C-alpha cells in the first residue's frame, strides 16, 4: 500500500510515517520543508518526500495522485481560520486526485461544540470531509502523553507542572499508538470507513502521573498544578485546559481496547518505561 502522509516531519505525522514504513508500506512524506533535517531523515529511510502546502490544492493533488490512501492533519498553530482553510484546500486536492481513503486526524470531543478554537476548527474540517464524498475515517486522539516533555525537561525531570487540578483525571494517548492505530485503519478500511473513532490509552490524575514517573525513574517527581494563564499558554490552549478541568474527554477506553486489541496500547507507565518523557531515559 502507498500512503501520502501529511505532516510527516512532525510528531504525529512522523509517528504514522515511521509505523507505515516499518510495516513495509510505501510512504510519501508531504511537507512544506523538504530541506529540513527531519525530511532528510525520512528520505534516508526510503520515503519519497513531496514538497507542498495544504493551502495549495494543486500541490496536494500532485502529491496524492496514484496513492492508495492519505493521512491528513492540519496545523492549528496559525489559528483556526487558517487551519480550516488548509483543510478545505487539501480536501479539494484529494478529490481531484481521486484518493480512495482519507484518514483525518481530529481531536476527541471536537464533535461536542466545546468552544475551544482548535477543537472547533477540526469540527468544521470533519464536516467538510463528510460533505466531500471521499471515503474517510476520522481518528480523534485525546491529550498526548508526550506533551509535558518541555516542562519536565526544564526541571531536570523533577516537576510535572500542568494547568489542571490535582483531582482532574486526564485521558491520554501515546503518539506512537496513534501511528499504530492509523496503520490499522489504513490496512482495514472496510472495518472503519465512515466512522469517527476517539482514541486514548490511559487516564490518570497529575499526582498519579508523577508517582508513575517517580517509580519508573527512581527519583522523586512531584506534581504542580499551575494557573491556565492565557498570557502564558495563549487563549486557545488556556481554554482547552479550563475545559479539561470542567468536563474532559469521554473516551470509553475499555471498549476501544477490546475492539482493537492488536494496537498494543500503552498505559502511562508502559509509555514512560519505553523511553517516554524523562530526560535522558530514551
Please provide a brief summary of the model.
By secondary structure, the protein is α/β, with parallel strands linked by helices.
Key terms for this structure?
alpha/beta, Rossmann fold, seven-stranded parallel β-sheet, three-stranded mixed β-sheet, 13 helices, disordered C terminus, NAD(P)-bd_dom_sf, NmrA-like_oxidored, NADP
Q: What is the CATH domain class?
A: Alpha Beta
**Poorly predicted residue ranges:** 278-282
Overall number of structural domains: 1
Strand order of the largest sheet: 3-2-1-4-5-6-10
Characterize the largest beta sheet: strand count, sense, and whether it forms a barrel: 7 strands, parallel
- Helix and strand sequence: EHEHEHEHEHEEHEEHHEEHEHHHH
Domain NmrA-like: 3-250
Organism: Carbonactinospora thermoautotrophica
Keywords: NADP
Family: Belongs to the NmrA-type oxidoreductase family.
What can you tell me about this protein's structure?
- Residues about 280 have low confidence and may be disordered.
- The chain is built from 13 helices and twelve strands.
- It is α/β, with parallel strands linked by helices.
- Strand 5 (about 100-105), helix 5 (about 115-130) and strand 6 form a beta-alpha-beta unit.
- The chain has helices at about 10-20, 35-45, 55-65, 80-95, 115-130, 150-155, 175-185, 190, 205-215, 230-235, 235-245, 255-260, 270-275; strands spanning about 1-5, 25-30, 50, 70, 100-105, 135-140, 145, 160, 170-175, 195-200, 200-205, 220-225.
- The strands form three sheets. It has a seven-stranded parallel beta sheet, with helices on both faces. Strands 7-9-11 form a three-stranded mixed beta sheet. Strands 8-12 form a two-stranded parallel ribbon.
- About 45% of the residues lie in helices and about 20% in strands.
- Helix 3 (about 55-65) packs across helix 4 and helix 4 runs parallel beside helix 5.
- It has one domain: NAD(P)-binding Rossmann-like Domain (Rossmann fold).
Amino acid at each position: 500500500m502507498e500512503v501520502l502522509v501529511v505532516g510527516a516531519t512532525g510528531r504525529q505525522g512522523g509517528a504514522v510515517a515511521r509505523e507505515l514504513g516499518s510495516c513495509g508500506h510505501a510512504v510519501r512524506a508531504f511537507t512544506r520543508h523538504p530541506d529540513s533535517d527531519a525530511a532528510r531523515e525520512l528520505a534516508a529511510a526510503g520515503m519519497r518526500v513531496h514538497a507542498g502546502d495544504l493551502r495549495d490544492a494543486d500541490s496536494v493533488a500532485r502529491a496524492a495522485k496514484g496513492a492508495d490512501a492519505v493521512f491528513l492533519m492540519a496545523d492549528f498553530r496559525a489559528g483556526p481560520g487558517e487551519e480550516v482553510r488548509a483543510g478545505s484546500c487539501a480536501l479539494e486536492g484529494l478529490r481531484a486526485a481521486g484518493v480512495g481513503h482519507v484518514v483525518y486526524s481530529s481531536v476527541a470531543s471536537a464533535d461536542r461544540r466545546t468552544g475551544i478554537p482548535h477543537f472547533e476548527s477540526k469540527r468544521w474540517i470533519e464536516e467538510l470531509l463528510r460533505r466531500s464524498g471521499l471515503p474517510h475515517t476520522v481518528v480523534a486522539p485525546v491529550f498526548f502523553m508526550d506533551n509535558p516533555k518541555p516542562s519536565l525537561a526544564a526541571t531536570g525531570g523533577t516537576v510535572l507542572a500542568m494547568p489542571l487540578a490535582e483531582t482532574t483525571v486526564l485521558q491520554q494517548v501515546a503518539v506512537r499508538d496513534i501511528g499504530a492505530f492509523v496503520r490499522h485503519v489504513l490496512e482495514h478500511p472496510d472495518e472503519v470507513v465512515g466512522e469517527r473513532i476517539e482514541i486514548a490509552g490511559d487516564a490518570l490524575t497529575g499526582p498519579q502521573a508523577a508517582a508513575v514517573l517517580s517509580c519508573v525513574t527512581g527519583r522523586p517527581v512531584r506534581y504542580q498544578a499551575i494557573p491556565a494563564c492565557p498570557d502564558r499558554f495563549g487563549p486557545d490552549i488556556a481554554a482547552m485546559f479550563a475545559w479539561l478541568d470542567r468536563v474532559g474527554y469521554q473516551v470509553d477506553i475499555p471498549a476501544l481496547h477490546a475492539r482493537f486489541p492488536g494496537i498494543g496500547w500503552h498505559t502511562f507507565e508502559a509509555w514512560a518505561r519505553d523511553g517516554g518523557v524523562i530526560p535522558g531515559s530514551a
